[in-house]
């Protein structure tokens, strides 16, 4: 019996770099599991949309699909948009078994990816000394989502024995620039910002701009198509595939 298809479902962006990054991440997933049918899809603003991908998979004979939402925190997209998209797919294709896994989330292993991206940023800036870090994320109206980012920031700071502040692009304080200025007010001058975003886009760009204006010495790229992220996608898929098995 063929394994369920895997659809990596991202939010989508008008910035072409975002879709290119998601497709590169899907290539990483395929490299680890070449036996699986793996596709990228988007909720909005980018193509292909989820319904287009599901239609194509059904036409090619797939009757089981596991959707992995490529979302770092629980918010409206996870609780409303993804279930609505799956309900539409089920209505379009009676008999199709389609299941959404838990979101990608904020796994501790992503700290390894943050470290890689930060080392790259520091090398570009020719910086060797740090006395504070800011972990920049998108931000949410859901306080639990923001608390998850803050917990990851504390873990990262503990690992590097540096003060770390979580900052947010929207919906919650502080903004990245405010976090950098707060550290500078303490007398710290070597402050770097890590981009806790999955892919590039207008929001990460703005967060980086605010940080640099406030005096940050380096801002890292988003997590992107890293093998560690691909492994988490496959871990989510594995759980979702088991949940499709009838009991």
The unreliable regions are: none
> Could you state the order of secondary-structure elements as H and E?
EHEHEHEHEHEHEHEH
Structural class: alpha/beta
Largest sheet: number of strands, sense, barrel closure: 4 strands, parallel
Beta strands, count: 8
* Portion in beta strands: 15-25%
Main β-sheet, spatial strand arrangement: 2-1-3-4
Range of helix content: 40-55%
Radius of gyration: 19 Å
Tally of separate helices: 8
Mean pLDDT: 95
From the spread of the alpha carbons, the general shape counts as elongated
**Could you tell me how far the N terminus lies from the C terminus, measured between alpha carbons in angstroms?**
17 Å
Structure in words:
Helices cover 48% and strands 16% of the residues. The longest helix is centred in the middle third of the chain and has 18 residues, at 143-160. Helix 1 packs across helix 8. It starts with a strand and ends with a helix. The chain is elongated, with a radius of gyration of 19 Å. It has helices at 16-32, 50-59, 76-92, 110-125, 143-160, 176-185, 202-214, 227-244; strands at 5-10, 38-42, 64-69, 97-100, 132-137, 164-168, 191-195, 218-219. It has 247 residues and is an alpha/beta fold. It contains eight helices and eight strands. A four-stranded parallel beta sheet has the order 2-1-3-4, with helices on both faces. A four-stranded parallel beta sheet has the order 6-5-7-8, sandwiched between helices.
């Amino acid at each position: 019996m063929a394994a369920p298809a895997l659809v990596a479902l991202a939010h989508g962006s008008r910035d072409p770099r975002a879709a290119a990054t998601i497709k590169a991440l899907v290539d990483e997933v395929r490299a680890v599991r070449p036996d699986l049918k793996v596709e990228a899809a988007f909720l909005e603003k980018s193509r292909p949309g989820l319904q287009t991908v599901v239609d194509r998979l059904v036409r090619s004979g797939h009757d089981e699909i596991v959707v992995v939402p490529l979302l770092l925190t629980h918010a409206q997209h996870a609780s409303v948009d993804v279930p609505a998209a799956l309900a539409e797919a089920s209505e379009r294709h009676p008999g199709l078994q389609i299941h959404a896994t838990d979101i990608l989330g904020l796994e501790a292993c992503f700290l390894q990816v943050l470290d890689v991206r930060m080392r790259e940023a520091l090398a570009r800036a020719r910086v060797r000394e740090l006395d504070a870090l800011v972990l920049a994320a998108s931000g949410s109206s859901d306080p639990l989502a923001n608390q998850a980012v803050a917990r990851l920031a504390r873990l990262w700071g503990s690992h590097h024995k540096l003060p770390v502040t979580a900052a947010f692009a929207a919906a919650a304080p502080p903004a990245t620039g405010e976090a950098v200025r707060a550290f500078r007010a303490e007398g710290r001058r070597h402050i770097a910002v890590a981009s806790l975003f999955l892919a590039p886009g207008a929001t990460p760009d703005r967060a980086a701009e605010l940080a640099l204006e406030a005096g940050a010495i380096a801002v890292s790229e988003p997590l992107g198509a890293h093998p560690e992220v691909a492994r988490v996608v496959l871990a989510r898929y594995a759980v979702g595939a088991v949940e499709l098995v009838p009991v």
